[in-house]
Amino acid sequence: MAYDGIVIHSILHELNDKLLGGRIDKVYQPESDEIILSVRSLGSNYKLLLTANPSHPRLHLTSSAKENPQEPPLFCMVLRKHIQSGKIIEISQPRFDRIVNIKIEALNEMGDYTVKTLILEIMGRHSNLMLVDENMKVLECARHISFDKSSVRQMLPGKEYTLPPGGEKLDTLTLNENNFNASIEKMPSEKIYAAIYKSFNGISPVIADEICCNAQTDPSLPVSMLSADDISRVYSAFDALVTKIRQNSYAPQIVYDGDRIIDMLPFGLNKFSGLKAKVFASPSEMTEAFYATKDTQYRLNQKTHDLKHLISQNIERCAKKRAIQQQSLKDIENREYLKLCGELITANIYAIKQGMTTVRLNNFYSEELEETEIELDSALTPAENAQKYFKRYNKAKRTFAALQDQIVSNDEELAYLEGVLTSVANCENEQDIKDIRSELREQGYIKKEAKQKGRKVSKRSVPLHFISSDGFDIYVGKNNVQNDELTLKTAHSTDIWMHTKNIPGSHVIIISRGAEIPDTTLTEAATLAAYYSKAQNSALVPVDYTQRKNVHKPNGAKPGFVIYDTNKTAYITPDEEAVKKIKQI
User: Fold this and answer.
1) Residue 503 neighbours by CB distance under 10 Å
2) CA angle 387, 389, 390 (to 5 degrees)
């Protein structure tokens, strides 16, 4: 279900219990639209995440650690100035809407206590974070909204804060039979479940559907087709839900269909009663678990967009270059004919007269001695015509020789770039992205940065590490630098090396320690090789494997490129569930 008003209400109940009266020790801004407040409260330390991520806006307590930029953004510095060391005095949800106000009492520059409000608006792509003063003037916001972006509502420093438009919905917590009936009657043609979520703040379509089901009323029926008894039952079911909300009777849970996540819920819903559910100790734990993978993938997609664009541009350049090279080969495919013409003219030079435009000569290289028609330049002597053909032949021969090297070089670059693009797709964290960016910088695809004094040198990410069912260590490179290190430095001569055949992908190493590798381990490692490759979504992917001693890197080859022999080939269909079953360290 959506991150609706009920989920927010359940989280605010938790935050009021844990953070009210607490002091803000630190303020961090790991992302442009994300703030983390470190709060000391009731003898414990908490981290409160507030994010205006357009795809997954939310707030909750978090246990995850994120890397912060070396230079704090402007919004972060403004927050530190105004609310760091401040005391949280109120956490509220106006009108049961998807808006959260956190009031913070702190000393200003004059040493007087003032109250600032940190506001999170959870509204999809319009989500935003802003800090306002006691007069509701915006001090700063995560996302500036100027008039050219919105003529309805601007969000800029110095502007007066106003609530978002759309305030015609009712506060769900003020539900009574009169305002319910009046709201529903205004929408006779709407389906009853739609009339509910369009009339009351914080109610998602999933909850509206649940209310109708609990009232034993078809949610798809138009309001006009409902009897008075139907509407009364729907109101009673709605009122029972609101009572549960007022009493904070929450049981946060994630429901699954098999291993697939279906939804997160503030409490159990009858419509999901047949599905498996995992109940969490708090709404924050549920929310963090639900969004962990989604948010990480969204952030990675954001941060790899420019890399993918850069690599794709270079792949396109190599593809165009290949097309030109193939056309050039086609243009000189008659080079042997040019040589033949020159030789036939030379052999019959006294039988050819200047001024002739064509001549038919027997091809003495052929057993049948068939005649070959040769075009001549009438302005040239027979000897000059022969030399003209030899010159054209020699030029074509030189072009062919040069093209052979260029084609090999271009194909190697194309294979390298496709491999890097696969590595980008397999990135699991920000450090993986930095490693690939560094590799591309070393290869000249990205302009090198000037060295900055005092800049921290980030640690390289490490290869993926798995343990097979038989207890063997399996390592998977996540980028070309790791592939080289695994294959050329980590692996011993008798270890098993794997890679998809003629398909960009990761180098996979099975550490044998001199023992014979069982088939089960070979299959699991081959599954990893196929999964972490460009052919992840294909069937029967060929995976070559051999001992490490049979793998060599040519001098001057690009990162990740090796040659090998004495290999065997396994055919594997990549399976995400099979990969999840392999123990990962």
Assistant:
1) 21
2) 60
Please tell me the distance from the alpha carbon of residue 330 to that of residue 30, in angstroms, as a whole number.
55
Per residue, the 3-state secondary structure of 112-175, as one string, reads CEEEEEEEEECCHHHCEEEEECCCCEEEEECCCECCCCCCCCCECCCCECCCCCCCCCECHHHC
Domain 5-141 has CATH 2.30.310.10: yes
**Residue whose C-alpha is closest to residue 116's, from 130, 128, 103:** 103
Tens-place pLDDT, residues 516-537: 999 999 999 999 999 999 999 8
| CA separation, residue 387 to residues 337, 357, 377, 397 (Å) | 14, 16, 12, 15
What CA–CA distance (Å, rounded) separates 413 from 512? 33
Fold category of 172-283 in CATH: Helicase, Ruva Protein; domain 3 (1.10.8)
- Computed from CA positions of residues 308, 299, 5, 265, in that sequence, does the dihedral angle turn out positive or negative? positive
d(CA 440, CA 460): 15
pTM of the complete model:
0.70
Residue 184 is inside which H or E element, if any? helix 177-185
Are 540 and 573 contacting, i.e. CB atoms less than 8 angstroms apart? yes
Q: What is the reported pLDDT for 455?
A: 54
Number of helical H runs and strand E runs in the chain = 13, 23
Cα diameter, the chain? 116
Considering only CA atoms, which of 52, 205, 194, 216 is closest in space to residue 122? 52
> 447 falls in which pLDDT band (50, 70, 90)?
confident
Chain-centre distance for alpha carbon 190: 38
